[in-house]
Write a structure and sequence with these properties.
Number of domains: 1
Strand content: 15-25%
Order of helices and strands: EHEHEHEEHEEEHEEHEHH
Radius of gyration: 18 Å
CATH class: Alpha Beta
Helix content: 25-40%
Number of helices: 8
Largest sheet: 5 strands, parallel
Strand order of the largest sheet: 1-2-3-4-9
CATH topology: Rossmann fold
CATH architecture: 3-Layer(aba) Sandwich
Length: 229
């Protein structure tokens, strides 16, 4: 019961199962689709959390979009914010990690990289916002950083993210190179470049920036996406 969930994050932690202390629960079964608006799914997550024992350390994953002026009033972000507040009020020193776009094998088909990759490989036309940026992080790095924070007995809310954002246009270009195929896209107005404050995790983990070398985003995309043979 140390890991709850069956998706991208849960599978990442399952690979490091023995590294998790016995008195820690990693809750990786929450709503992960940022487009979600179903109250039924939100209530399902809330109920699952309410059934967890209180004599354990709880690790919960939220979203960096809470700090986004563009997304902070969406049903998904409002739900995550509500859950954060409930956990801080009702549990003893939970560790709440706000994450950006987590990249790995599989994952939500609606996330940006999977959507763009699918569109390129299937010759589908799509729009991208010319001023849009994203923050990408490898699921394996999320697991490693989380384990470090657990071992440090960290608690409270903090952002775990890449120090450098990448433009959506560059993501598309990286995927074109990796997939060896041109994308059919239109550039439209809109998008923001969200600054994510990672000062708290940097203070806790010396050398945190070493996870993210200058070519991190390209290597990350190359790692999980490749041309079909």
């Amino acid at each position: 019961m140390k890991i709850i969930g069956s998706g991208l994050l849960a599978n990442g932690f399952l690979a490091r199962y023995t590294a998790l202390p016995a008195d820690v629960i990693v809750f990786a079964s929450g709503v992960s689709n940022s487009q979600e608006s179903s109250d039924e799914n939100f209530q399902r997550e809330r109920k699952m959390l309410s059934l967890l024992p209180f004599d354990v350390k709880l690790v919960y994953f939220s979203t960096c979009s809470i700090e986004s002026s563009e997304k902070k009033n969406t049903p998904y972000v409002l739900h995550k914010c509500s859950i954060e507040n409930e956990l801080l009020l009702r549990r003893i020193k939970p560790l709440i990690l706000r994450l950006p776009q987590v990249v790995g094998s599989g994952g939500n088909s609606r996330n940006l990289l999977n959507f763009v990759s699918y569109s390129i490989q299937n010759n589908l036309e799509f729009d991208i916002q010319g001023s849009a940026f994203r923050n990408l992080i490898d699921v394996q790095d999320v697991v490693d950083i989380t384990l470090m924070l657990i071992n440090l007995n960290a608690n409270g809310v903090m952002n775990v993210a890449n120090p450098l954002n990448v433009s959506v246009l560059d993501i598309v270009r990286h995927l074109e190179m990796v997939l060896n195929k041109k994308a059919n896209y239109n550039i439209v107005d809109g998008g923001i470049d969200l600054t994510i404050d990672i000062s708290k995790v940097i203070r806790l983990i010396p050398g945190y920036e070493n996870f993210f070398e200058s070519d991190y985003n390209y290597r990350l995309i190359s790692k999980y996406f490749k041309a079909a043979n």
